[in-house]
Structure formats: structure tokens, C-alpha cells
Amino acid sequence: MYAAARLAVAIALPMLAVACSKDKQEGGQAPSALVPRRVPDTNLVVALPQGWLADMPDPGPLPPPPPEGGKLTLSGRKLLEARPGTPAPGMLMTPVLHVFEDPWLPLGTTGVDYLVAQRTANQQALGANIRHVEAEPGRRAGRPSYHVRDEWTVLGKDGDSRDVSQEALLILESVTTPDKRQMLTGYTLVVTLEKAEFKTLQPVVREILASVRFEERTK
């Protein structure tokens, strides 16, 4: 699943280089094993497992709002990346979390619209046969959301194949442009890992995505 390099994430995901998206409920309190961290320049808070290393790359300046009547365009601005320090024994890639932002989506964009756009971008970026495992609509703090899981197969340098699993949370938030128009911002939080680790890590992945909440920034 999804968004920028593009993911996830869109869904374009730099994670593949290392190998050579049910969420109807509101986010609750983060488990004690997870540590809350604010996503830079947003009201988003996500809880990360203790020991995961977080990097907050500079996504560059926010692009200006498009003219009225513009089409749905994904920017895939990477706001945060986090992963364990080392891969598990036998794994070619380390699990990785990305948070992507897609500002200035047209008002009226639905969760389905955002999901389709993300999956289209992911397909173009990966060039792999993506298997859509699940996609379930929901709401997060009153905002439209989708919980998604996809899989695909990659080939390593030695010719061996590895299955990759990706679980993501897509959220749409209403925003006001500088010229007082109403638009939407899309957020994609996506965890990518080898499928061989999925059964072991899925509870942690679900806890991470369930922890996502919106919290007003204080000056």
C-alpha cells in the first residue's frame, strides 16, 4: 500500500531498496510499550515501539494550493520514517514505518478516491503484481479513513524471491487554504515488512496504527 518516494506509502516506497497498508474504531491510548511521537508540522501523533529509530526528513516547503477545479494530485511528502535498529535474523529488509502527506486535495475527495489514487501510484512505483488483501473504511477522530493491507513479491540479487507485506492507514482531514478555500489533506501511515515477519509483528503494527490520533499543537 502506499504514498512518495512515492508508498507507501503511496504509494511509492524506498523500502524495496533494502530487499536487492481492521480500523473502524477511534485511536485509543498507546500501549505502554509504545512511545507517542508527534509527526512534524502536523497535529498527528503516532506511538512507536521503544527502540525504533525515527528520522524526520525535510520534506521541503509546502506547495501552494492549486487553482480551483484542480484534479486530485498526490504529493507524497515524507514527514517521518522509523524502523528497528537491525533486521531480524534471516530477513533482507528491516520493517519500516513511513508517514506521508498529500496536501491540497479537492474538497469532495472521498476515502475511496484517495485509496484508488494511492494504489495507482503504488503500482506505478513498484512495478510489481500487488495483491490487495484487505481494505476497510472507517473513521478516525471523525475523519474518513481506510485501513489497507497489500502484498507483493520482490526478487533479491541472488534471484531468491521474497514476499512483502504492507499495512497502512489512510486519513483525510479538512483544511483551509490561505485564500480561505476549503480543501483536504491526506495522510498515509504505512508499515512495510517481509511477510515472513507478518504474523509475529502484526499485533505491533496494528497497535501502532490504532495509536494514531490528532492532537492540537500548543505554542
Q: What tags apply to this protein structure?
A:
single chain; 219 residues; mainly beta; seven-stranded antiparallel β-sheet; three-stranded antiparallel β-sheet; 2 helices
Helix and strand topology:
Elements: E1 34-38, E2 44-49, E3 53-55, E4 77-83, E5 96-105, H1 111-126, E6 131-140, E7 143-155, E8 161-176, E9 182-194, H2 198-210, E10 213-214
Written description of the protein model:
This protein has helices at 111-126, 198-210, and strands at residues 34-38, 44-49, 53-55, 77-83, 96-105, 131-140, 143-155, 161-176, 182-194, 213-214. The model is unreliable at 3-32 (pLDDT under 50). It is mostly beta strands and 219 residues long. Strand 7 (143-155) and strand 8 form a beta hairpin. The radius of gyration is 17 Å and the shape is globular. The strands form 2 sheets. The protein has a 7-stranded antiparallel β-sheet, with helices on both faces. Strands 1-2-10 form a 3-stranded antiparallel β-sheet. It is 13% helix and 39% strand.
